[in-house]
Amino acid sequence: MPAPLGLAIAARHLSHRRRQTVTSLLGVALGVAFFIAIASMMQGFQQDFVNRIIDSSPHVTIKDEFRTPPRQPVENVYPGATIQLRGLKPKDEVRGLRGGRAIIAALEQIPGLKVAPTLSGNALLRYGPKDSSVNVIGIDPDKERLVTKLEQDLIAGKLEGLYTAANGIILGEGVALKAGIAMDDLVSVVSPEGVVLRMKVVGIFRSGLTLTDNFDTYMLMKKAQVLQNRPNVINRVRIRMDDVEQAEALAKSIESRFGYRTESWQEQSSNVLGIFVIQNAIMYSTVGAILIVACFGIFNVISTVVFEKTKDIGILKSMGFRDADIRRIFVYEGLMVGCIGVLMGWALGYGLVEFMGSLEFKMEGFVRAEGFVLYRTPKHYAISGAMGLLASTFAAWLPARRASRMKPVDIVRGAA
Amino acid sequence: MTAIPILEARNLTRELPGPVPVTLVRDIDLGVGAGEFVAITGPSGSGKSSLLYLLGLLDAPSNGEVLVDGLTTHGLNDNQLADLRLSRFGFVFQFHFLLPEFNALDNVQIPMRRLGLLGAGEIRDRAEMLLQALGLGEHAHKLPEQMSGGQRQRVAIARAMANDPAVILADEPTGNLDTKSAENVFSQFRRLATDLGRAVVVVTHDTELAARADRRVHLVDGRIVP
Lengths: 416, 226
Known about the structure:
The structure holds two protein chains of two kinds. By secondary structure, chain A is an alpha+beta fold. Chain A folds into two domains: 3-54 and 272-415, no CATH class; 112-237. Chain A contains 17 helices and twelve strands. Chain B has helices at residues 48-55, 78-88, 104-115, 120-133, 149-160, 179-194, 207-210, and strands spanning 5-16, 22-33, 37-41, 63-68, 71-72, 89-92, 167-171, 199-203, 215-220, 223-225. Helices cover 34% and strands 27% of the residues of chain B. Chain B is of the alpha/beta class. In chain B, the strands form two sheets. Chain B has a six-stranded mixed beta sheet. A four-stranded antiparallel beta sheet of chain B has the order 2-1-4-5, with helices on one face.
């Protein structure tokens, strides 16, 4: 059968059933549009979040911890036996990365890596009547600016302020806001070791990651070591890489080489990345459900057409149309609904995305944002288009097959 | 006038299987030549229509065979049978079976477009010519629902003639028409046989009309009786 003839018959069938056709069209269009809008919103948010993490935090962090507790000698003597040890005391070791300088020197040999040592620990920030618990990070500003985005994130002051002030400290925006601290204010920092330092606020940063902004403070490495009473000790090595996708592999190789627990950015954000997986599953099942409903609509309209058109099928077949011709006519109908529905859905989806993009609001969750971060990609259009066409073809296939199997003699005999 | 049978039935039997098998037609031998107008008559349930469907390759015989142009159609698959119907047969049924969404002109064009031998312009010209010949020139752009029963049936005849078939098969074509329209339609079949040399087989229960055929085949209980 020449395609134009089949298409002409299919088009007439649909245009004479306008209401049902429009309903099925809307089903496909809404499914496609929602997919584009939701995917763009979700992926935009996820991409934005990952970008912020990749930008502002180190890609790999070496910590002064071990993944598994040290093996007790008795376990080596009796492997596999049930052993009960009582009164075991952990060794009183100096905490920190042993041979930290050597580790850094070794890592700096690897091309594509920027390495910065830090000493981080907890402290109490005291300003007037306000005490707030903060995370104090001792840094080497010259190295830090290569590894994290701290310098770009500063909304007041400069990173050099740490050198120029006698006791400089940089606060996260949240820390400063909660305690009502402004630039150049003097604050007391109290460590668990009992050391108290009077420090001057030389900078305030905003990373957009709520947790970081509410708890992190930066000072020179030397001051942090004094504060924690741990001279010459570092307990974190932060690494930035040119190729962030290699972070997991690098973390693994560092951990197996030096023994210290080494986390990639993926591992450090695994809780959030895990949520993304669930988010995506919800998105796909929601959109899938919409398309299934659209499928029923198409199935319904084409089944009705097949039922109403039994006589036409009979005459077309006795006229000399083959089974495949009849099947094609009804599959064309599904494809037409699918194609037009997908095109409408694309337009609607584009409109929705642009509308969401124009909205402005303040949001504070994992990240701070001033509106939807939207991810626009032709891929969403391709995926939703393919799904829409596939669904409509499938929905049309079943009634079309039934139509093609009708015997013309049964139809003309029944009617005559 | 029966020099070479274009359409021939040999020993044709059709049984409907089931707990109680029903025989529709039994041991039919029949030949129809070019330019011959055959009327099949008989009481209701005598198997007239069943015979026509068998002759038109719409139904498969339980026994015996149908020959078209002297060649057996036994063993042809559904697609081959469909192609044969498309090029060699034209059907007219009691109900016009025009596609309701298409106007008369489009309906007549459909078999030609399916066959695909002619260009779009030629197909259109031929469809107009066919409608003209049946006196429907001014109704070419009407939808079936806008025409009378007789007019519709004449459109159906034009459609049956579309691919210039050798055989025209009609099942009670005048069954739903008033006397005048029936007369008109019947004379068209007469014309197809006499003037255009088609083999025409018409099933009818109207004995008056049947009497005007070249030959009358009377069926009783699925068998030809003299």
